[in-house]
């Protein structure tokens, strides 16, 4: 049984998906667009790591912070909970 499976885009699978804060610095330069965050979800459905892989530099930290607060239902493979790696995409607009 693999230890980690790839889940693709995980937005729709979240039980709880907090909205990222729009930082004053990002707002000041009118930063917008989407930020993709690579996440690793443990067997309990908690995000154990989050790293922005694309998007505006001033939006990445907020997206990573929000992703760390996301919660998922455990993913089962052959009845056993497994870790899932995937991407959460956040869209920032003014």
Question: Can you put this structure into words, describing what you see?
Answer:
- 18% of the residues lie in helices and 47% in strands.
- It has 94 residues and is an alpha+beta fold.
- Strand 6 (75-77) and strand 7 (80-92) form a beta hairpin.
- The mean pLDDT is 94.
Q: Total strand count, please?
A: 7
> How many angstroms does the end-to-end distance come to?
45 Å
Determine the mean pLDDT. Answer: 94
Structural class: alpha+beta
Radius of gyration: 14 Å
Proportion of residues in β-strands = over 45%
* Low-pLDDT residue intervals, each spanning 5 or more residues: none
Largest sheet: 5 strands, mixed
Proportion in helices: 10-25%
Principal-axes shape call: elongated
The quaternary organization reads as single chain
Order of helices and strands: EEHEEHEEE
Count up the helices.
2
Task: Provide the descriptors you would attach to this structure in a database record.
two-stranded antiparallel sheet, 7 strands, 94 residues, elongated, alpha+beta, 18% helix, five-stranded mixed sheet
Q: How would you summarize the topology of this molecule?
A:
Blueprint: E1 4-9, E2 14-16, H1 24-28, E3 33-41, E4 47-54, H2 57-68, E5 71-72, E6 75-77, E7 80-92
Parallel strand pairs: 1-7
Antiparallel strand pairs: 2-5, 3-4, 3-7, 6-7
Short note summarizing the structure:
The protein is α+β, with helices and mostly antiparallel strands and 94 residues long. The protein has helices at 24-28, 57-68, and strands spanning 4-9, 14-16, 33-41, 47-54, 71-72, 75-77, 80-92. It contains 2 helices and 7 strands; from the N terminus they run ββαββαβββ.
